[in-house]
Records
---
Amino acid sequence: MRKLPHPTSLAHAMLRQLAAGPGTFYQICELLEFDIEDDTVEAVCRAHFSDLVDAGHAYLVDLTYHITTAARASIVPPAPYVGQVAGPAYRGTPHPMPVTIARRAAGARA
């Protein structure tokens, strides 16, 4: 995989849109609000998609473009910790604690 496109470039905008989900050439261009009715704009967009595929940042499956895992990891920030009681900042000594399980009576409502 080659170096990612510059963050302010058209190709980088295409990669960010692909990170949101796969799409066809026309869908991605429409979401990015490119006027592909103009032949010059369409040619430039197609050239950028071709460069992204050649560089190994995206791949084509039938008609839809997808972002590669390596490019997604480079563009999208890592997800925060979800569902953990204590994240990486927790430095205490782990120890077992008692747990009380409370059940509602049959037919009780919250």
---
Amino acid sequence: MKIKFGFLADDLLNEWDGYDYDATAAAYAAAVEEALKAAYPDAEIEIAYESGISGATPTPLKTAVDGYTGHDEVPWVEEIATRVYASFEWLREK
């Protein structure tokens, strides 16, 4: 199984002040990757993100499993990423 998860770094913080956007995006990507590896230990995991833009996630960054954005596992992958987001442990101050 191959899992691809992507996000727009600027959407993580929604213009919150006092945080390092680049370090925060890298920390979030690492935390999501770690959580996905724990949930899917045999899967190939790819995490991608872009900085400097926000809004709708571009197609190349959309969550996909085995190349399909409509795969049955996609909602579970996104749930894992949501739980990581909700922890706020990935925030990095300036």
